[in-house]
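Run log // design_07
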């Protein structure tokens, strides 16, 4: 199976520097984020996508809808692709990073999840995806933290190296499962 994973387009909270991990909070794409998604759709137009899975968060769903339009393919939201639960929804991203700085892999804020728990959730999704043998080309629309896990898995990187990876909005990572 060929996987094309991409980070969602720029959201209003990206611009404001705020955390958002609650799927019930409507945080849409900016006009620039919609343009990023349209450019990603153009970049993927020759790929015969069989299915699109996306995070349940509105910014990922909106990105997936823009890309999927040109492919006429079904979109399935998956909780397993949701952004890391920071325990800081609506708070500044800097506050979240300050609160986990002492142990970025295992620190938890409130009812959030640790980076290692998030990684395991993503790996569980990837294992499940591997059982979906009816698909050859799948697009996953998720979040930067999730993209780090995909890249670390595909490239066999350490957790420490994974934490240092960075992905732009609508950046596409291709790998085989």
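design_07 sequence
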């Amino acid at each position: 199976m060929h996987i094309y994973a991409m980070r969602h387009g720029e959201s209003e909270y990206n611009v404001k520097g705020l955390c958002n991990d609650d799927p019930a909070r409507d945080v849409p794409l900016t006009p620039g984020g919609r343009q990023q998604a349209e450019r990603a759709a153009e970049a993927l137009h020759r790929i015969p996508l069989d299915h699109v899975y996306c995070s349940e968060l509105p910014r990922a769903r909106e990105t997936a809808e823009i890309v999927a339009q040109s492919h006429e393919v079904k979109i399935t939201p998956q909780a397993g692709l949701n952004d890391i639960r920071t325990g800081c929804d609506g708070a500044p991203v800097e506050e979240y990073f300050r609160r986990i700085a002492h142990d970025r892999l295992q620190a938890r804020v409130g009812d959030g999840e640790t980076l290692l728990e998030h990684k395991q959730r993503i790996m569980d999704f990837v294992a499940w995806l591997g059982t979906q043998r009816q698909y050859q080309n799948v697009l996953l629309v998720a979040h930067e933290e999730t993209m780090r896990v995909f890249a670390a898995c595909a490239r066999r990187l350490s957790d420490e190296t994974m934490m240092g990876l960075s992905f732009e909005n609508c950046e596409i990572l291709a790998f085989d499962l």
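The mean pLDDT is 96.
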